[in-house]
Design brief:
This protein is an alpha/beta fold and 110 residues long. The protein has 4 helices and 6 strands. It is globular and about 35 Å long.
């Protein structure tokens, strides 16, 4: 890890059980990517601060898990059409002015 390491992560509550860091960090290591994936435990009252903080720290992307998939939407700069229809996002991608929210759950089921 160094000053060029790409930081991605997961926000939710709880996150202690998730295997996502093992999966993403192993994949990054095996493919030679300078990337780290970090789980962040975020309480309901901290969602706005978490999104703003992630943006301020240039976190490259975030996954969102329960219970924040709907609660995070007001703090995003935009939301992809299908995610807006569902009313939930699970992926945040940086864009000018904030994060854009996507829902990849349906794609995974298709």
């Amino acid at each position: 890890m160094d000053g060029k390491t790409v930081v991605c992560g997961l926000i939710g509550d709880p996150v202690e059980h998730t295997l996502s860091p093992v999966i993403h960090n192993t994949l990054a290591q095996e493919t030679g990517r300078n990337l780290v994936y970090v789980p962040f435990s975020v309480k309901a009252e901290q969602v706005e601060d978490a999104v703003r903080g992630a943006r301020a720290l240039s976190i490259r992307g975030l996954n969102v898990t329960v219970p924040h998939k709907s609660a995070v939407i007001p703090y995003l700069s935009s939301v992809e059409r299908e995610a807006a229809l569902i009313g939930a996002v699970n992926t945040l991608v940086p864009e000018e002015g904030g994060y854009r929210g996507y829902n990849t759950d349906l794609t995974g089921l298709g």
